[in-house]
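1st attempt posting a full record on here, be nice pls
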Amino acid sequence: MTRILLVEDEPAIVSSLSEYLTSEGFFVDHTDGMRGAMEKLAGSVFQLVLLDVSLADGNGFSVCSAVKGQYDIPVIFLTASGDEASIVAGLDLGADDYIAKPFRPRELVSRIRNALRKYSPASVIVLPGQVMVDADRGVVTKAGAEIPLSALEYRILLLFASNRGRLLTRARLLEDIWDIAGDFVNDNTLTVYIKRIREKIEDDPAHPEIIRTVRGLGYRVD
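the predicted structure (as tokens):
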């Protein structure tokens, strides 16, 4: 499920937009300011940020700059109608698109999907150790030989592969697995699944070179 962070301080817009985007199949989380936005981005994986220029604390330009500096995800500005200066400033900071208020929800959804297509990962993701994840076929191979994975093992590995270079905390992994699988996965179960995946893809599971442990923080695939 595509996760969207809505950064907006107008309650009426938050309520109506969250309801509509949820009905279109998106997961929407919300915050009203810069500090909250950065905390949520650090704590969960999002695929897109919807960002108002005027916020409860700070402004959208600062959030856009921070997001583009730390995360490889699209940003769409929500701007006041006819505010050309804000539009230009946002695009100059790396924003991927903008839409003027009041906007038509269906047009916004179209803009969102267009932005997501530009950032969609390659269908085949190459990992260290000659491991390849074919996202289109749902197949994982190592040195050309297919590796049998359970559905949840595959989804966990795909989550790692799609976030190469990023630290994934255990809390973030558990949250995303819950969304993907629809089942309860606790901390101990996550440890078991990662151990099983390592046994299948690592040359030496006791000294993993693909899914690396960042002690006290989580995991990372370089």
